[in-house]
Write a structure and sequence with these properties.
mainly alpha, about 50% helix, two-stranded antiparallel ribbon, Glycosyltransferase, 5 strands, 14 helices, three-stranded antiparallel beta sheet, 2 domains
């Protein structure tokens, strides 16, 4: 005889799972995605940079958006173009064809993001022979970039320096639950974070160094990369012991808020910072970003990551600031 209590419990669990899945709003990347699965950097753009596409999909996934309509088509598109050494190029449109046109800016961050996206689809990663091979090759390629002396990751076999923001991306893969279970012991994650603090934290100036290049300590700082590097760790929950992250955020906004909100007029819109504002519950600032960048949406100053940031804020019920709100 069927145990009705067990049956109803099973039905309730299934319905709960279905409702939970249905509750995740779908990511909408129309205009960035084509029929082949490629994801361009800009709206109806002619350039594919795998870094931006991977960053955007993971940002959406991490913030509760359903990426299933785009993630697997993108993975299938990109894995066909992965080079024999497991690295990736950037691509330009030549008529209907996407052709390699530039090498990647940094292999370490790109490989880490690729691994982390594959971790969001464990069934496909483990059962598809092509993806399984790519995953193993990508891990090997990333491991080759670990500097044995400093314990951080280097940009590429050609560029033998480390970048702070790239290492944050690598750390995000090491620290992810899937990597912790399968490939990256907890001790490795803790050690990488400690090495990053040792290499990139300038205790005398209480700032993060952007690069291990010697000239980094004397370069005139700019919004990107130097100033962005001071706030981006908050996106990854990366901290220096004794550093008050809330105070760090407030000081950053006091110094750079107006400059950041004006970036969309001449540079990219930097939606990642708006997601950080949302994360630390500075909803007024996130609202200001939505208002101030609205004219830039779908322009050359708007990336696929900015589009995802906008949808994340709306998913979190954040609306654009009223015209009367003071944002500068």
């Amino acid at each position: 005889m069927v145990n009705l209590k067990t049956l109803f419990a099973g039905v309730a669990l299934a319905l709960s799972g279905a409702c939970s899945q249905a509750a995740a709003p779908p990511l909408d990347l129309q205009g960035f995605s084509d029929a082949q699965g490629a994801l361009s950097v800009q709206y109806h753009g002619d350039t594919v940079d795998p870094y931006f596409a991977l960053q955007a999909l993971l940002l959406a996934h991490d913030n509760g958006l359903d990426i299933s309509a785009y993630a697997l088509p993108w993975v299938n598109w990109l894995v066909q173009r992965q080079k024999p050494d497991a690295t990736f190029d950037r691509f330009c449109r030549n008529g209907p064809v996407w052709a390699p046109c530039k090498t990647a800016d940094a292999d370490d961050a790109l490989l880490a993001l690729w691994l982390r996206l594959l971790d969001t689809m464990p069934h496909q990663r483990d059962t598809n022979a092509v993806l399984r091979k790519s995953y193993a090759a990508s891990r090997t390629a990333l491991n080759r970039l670990l500097d044995p002396q400093r314990g951080i990751y280097l940009v590429s076999p050609v560029y033998q320096h480390g970048l702070f923001m790239d290492n944050l991306e690598v750390l995000s893969w090491h620290a992810s639950p899937a990597a912790q279970r399968a490939t990256s012991p907890r001790g490795d994650t803790v050690q990488l974070a400690a090495n990053m603090r040792k290499v990139f934290w300038d205790a005398s100036n209480r700032t993060y160094l952007v690069s291990t290049q010697p000239e980094q300590k004397t370069v005139t700082p700019a919004f990107y990369p130097e100033f962005v590097a001071q706030v981006l760790p908050l996106l990854f929950d990366f901290q220096v012991p004794g550093l008050d992250s809330k105070l760090q955020y407030r000081n950053w906004m006091r110094q750079h808020r107006a400059t950041w909100l004006a970036q969309s007029k001449h540079d990219f819109s930097w939606g990642l910072v708006a997601v950080i504002a949302d994360k630390v519950n500075d909803l007024a600032t996130a609202s200001c970003w939505l208002r101030e960048t609205e004219p830039a949406r779908r322009s050359s100053h708007w990336t696929v990551t900015d589009e995802v940031a906008r949808q994340v804020l709306h998913h979190h019920n954040i609306a654009a600031a009223m015209a009367s709100a003071i944002c500068h």
